[in-house]
Amino acid sequence: MNLHLLTAREIAGRIRSRDLTATAAVTAALARIAAQNGAVNAFTTVTEARALARAGEIDAMIAQGADPGPLAGVPFAAKNLFDVAGVVTLAGSIIEQRRAPATQDGFAVAAMERAGAICVGCLNMDEYAYGFTTENTHYGPCRNPHDPSRVAGGSSGGSGAAVAAGLVPLSLGTDTNGSIRVPASLNGIWGIKPTYGRLSRAGGVMFVPSLDHVGPFARSVADLALAYEAMQGEDQADPAQSWRGLDRVSGLLDQGIGGLRIARLGGHFARHGHAYVQNATDHVAEALGARGTVEIKDAAAGRAAAFLITASEGANQHLDDLRTQPNRFEPLTRDRLLAGAMLPAQWVIHAQRVRSQYRQDVLALFRHWDILVAPATPSVATPIGQAMLEADGQSVPLRPSFGVYTQPISCIGLPVIAAPLQGVDGVMPLGVQLIAAPWAEATLFRAAAELERAGLCMARVAPEFV
Amino acid sequence: MIAEDFDPLAFVTATAPALGMRFTPERLAELAEAFALVMRVGMPALTQAVPPDAEPAPVFVA
Asked: The whole model's pTM is what?
């Protein structure tokens, strides 16, 4: 049985019906990680003993007639900035190796396990989540399963690669400026960045608290919905959470998109990327029956505001270490953090005002539209080590540019699903953003399911890993 | 907001000690380059006019 090709829903179904044990599912996942991880460098820690112990508990619950939850026995892994009990929370850095192992799971990891899922390890990422490529100098670059010479995206690169390589059916990541949507796009899988404040971020290393989100990756919309539901729950430990009760979406996937007002984003979102990026976005918009193209006024200013806020707030998180041990930081981003530490306060406050005004302008669009369609990345995955991106007649620094389409959306906390298309340039996958008003994730899941049913957007294990 | 004769190297040289940081002249030149990049990418926000009542609070409810 090729368990690595099954969805989370299929694995849980077999375990709940006693066709498969959780121990067998976890053992198979651990064996696959041992055999295949070297090709993608997605895992930094494998939690074998813990996972097998938890699998034994799940099997015992089933033997006793108890319900372990909708993700019964499903292996998953978490970006290594989430606390996992017994593991040092690295956040992609070597500085954090000084920390004691976490004594308890972060909220999202614990929530997944409450739903029956089993954590099998921790995943590679850009140091402190500052990056879009996971070319981590300390732990090695994460490689794209569709072409291991290319990047897996970032900062949740390990989370994207682990799912696309079939090492796990589900993974957890974070998204500050695009760190779920960029790796979802480049690895050709589904990812959701929920509304800012929807999911608790407590129990992990933050990057930019006023912009940080958590969310899952999956190879099917139904799996994405299950993980999104599992990660919910009220948590006083995250001061930014705005608890609104459980958002159940799994039952809505068959509803279709009737009545939804859908538009394609133009302007900023129709520039900057390769032609195939724009073509893929057009195809998704057409498949959803988009009724026009609209522009987000000042999207470039919104993106720039996010960039300044990120540099400043992110640097403040690490100011002591920047002062005392700067040479232990990731060389690719150290100087950007140091520059961020030096930004004048008036620039950053002005950026916050720009963000507030921009948010008001964008929210007004949702009086007329339910879903906005936009590219996720300006290109498919690029070769590891490439420094410049050639697109739309321009040559720009690659590493900050992968967020050109994602930053203007996340900086105002809108929910987004990244929907994957395969082989858009003839070989590599690419994602398209489905964007909704705050707290309208259910609308996004309906559209995502429609695209999956139509066969236009789908995720799969990369061919070399089948 | 930014004067035409703004000099990133002079700025980072003056600012580093205020943060308790000391750098060699070579590192200051590299940091000035990084600062200039951040400033360049951030420029669309820095040159954007906002109404006086635009909220400056960093945390918001979406």
From this structure: 0.97
